[in-house]
Amino acid sequence: MGHGIAFEFAKFGHNVTLFDISLKNLNIAKNKIDKLISSSGNCDSYKKITFVKNLKDSVANAEIVVEAINENYQAKVDLYSRLEIFLDKNSLIISNTSSLLPSKLSKNLDNPERFFVTHYFNPPYNIPLVEIVPTLQTNSINIDKIKNLFCEMNKQPILIKKEINGFIANRLQAAIQRESINLVEQEIATPEDVDNIVKNTFGRRLSVAGPFEIWEQIGWDLVEKILLEIFPNLSNQNSPSTLIEEKVNQKKLGFSTNEGFYKWNVKKKEKLINAISKNLILLRDLDTNE
Length: 290
Fold this sequence. Notes:
single chain, alpha/beta, N-(1-d-carboxylethyl)-l-norvaline Dehydrogenase, domain 2, 3 domains, five-stranded mixed β-sheet, two-stranded parallel ribbon, 7 strands, 52% helix, globular
């Protein structure tokens, strides 16, 4: 995700420094950015990106620092403590966490008003929306600053009114994931059945209309009757299912191990990635042209 965020900032004319504690990961990011620049034809973007092996050098004179390390609370908190030593007091620290609460992440900062979450979606250069999640201590001037910056970059910033684990998009996705697993566990459907139903029914509508827009079209009287029938039988599990636990224990993790609920090879992976990318680009360009 970090390489995609870096590419997007550079694409819109901002000088970017990319840092990783792993030289291997930094080289992987460089190669990914090379491919993005080649495919976009915007060679000037490359001149805006510097790859740095030292944390202090990477944030020298930085106005904004975007943290995109793995979803590990302690690792993030430790990084912020080190960052504050090197940063100007007016520099912003932003986390791209997918689920962790910003108030918890920022509790040890000397200057917590500079901190908030900007939750990007992968790939960030093809998905315009960003969830902005402040804490009660976040300075409103800093929020306005990043919102204006995102608007200049043709992104769609959405300010989350109250912090909550998973924010909005991931909570909605989690609700679908929970019921999808439940249907498979009860042997009502296979994973392939669930995927095909989502892709070829309501998933198509959701690319152009949100749930409230769709329900307004249906009518709330009918929606109420439908939900009265369905809600009592939906999964209400409050922890990941045993089916997921089994996959993790069996090291069947998906793409990374070439097997999860499906079996994967290079050709199958590339086919899915390219299909997703193609459609995201079509939607992105459609939004841009409207």
